[in-house]
């Protein structure tokens, strides 16, 4: 079975492919959706990860008849911020109007904005989670939905260089490391995307 992933993000594709390879008893291949770069992006204006994932999966599957298309929505939820950045994780600094050097990479701007938002927050309030929802659709119909989460704490300074997004700030107490400090094989066991994909594959099988 081939699943066509509606993302060009190399970090996401890496997580998904590694998770698929780890699931015993499945013969699944993940590929980027053909012609993705030429398909206009749909609006991501749903208030939940599930809503956005389902909307994107249905939309992209209508552009590729007969294919099983997988789309995700994922992000960081922080207790002290009432669940923000949430569905706006990729646009957090932009939404906040955070004054900073626009020449910096987007991930760096978002991380700096998050640190500013959490100034003065107690360690308990800095708890949060990565949350991913995956939806699979064919010909506009949703055929499976699954989610995955991983709990952690937001640090006061970035650590590590291996991840992307908020990984340098997302600390896993049980390992004593941030997501950006983990070896790829270890990160796979804790990845919210990996957990969501494993559950999705179980549903589809």
Topology:
Elements: E1 2-5, H1 10-22, E2 29-32, H2 49-63, E3 69-78, H3 92-96, H4 106-117, E4 127-138, E5 141-154, E6 170-172, E7 177-178, H5 184-190, H6 192-204
Parallel strand pairs: 1-2, 1-3
Antiparallel strand pairs: 3-4, 4-5, 5-6, 6-7
Active site: 73
GO molecular function, one term: dITP diphosphatase activity
Subunit structure: Homodimer.
Coarse morphology: globular
Query: Mean pLDDT across all residues, rounded?
Result: 89
Order of helices and strands: EHEHEHHEEEEHH
End-to-end separation: 10 Å
Q: How does the helix and strand content classify structurally? A: alpha/beta
- CATH class categorisation: Alpha Beta
Count of distinct structural domains = 1
Overview of the structural elements:
The protein has helices spanning 10-22, 49-63, 92-96, 106-117, 184-190, 192-204, and strands at 2-5, 29-32, 69-78, 127-138, 141-154, 170-172, 177-178. With 205 residues, the chain is α/β, with parallel strands linked by helices. Strand 6 and strand 7 form a beta hairpin. Helix 1 (10-22) crosses helix 6 (192-204). The model has no long low-confidence stretch (mean pLDDT 89). The termini are close together. It has a 7-stranded mixed beta sheet.
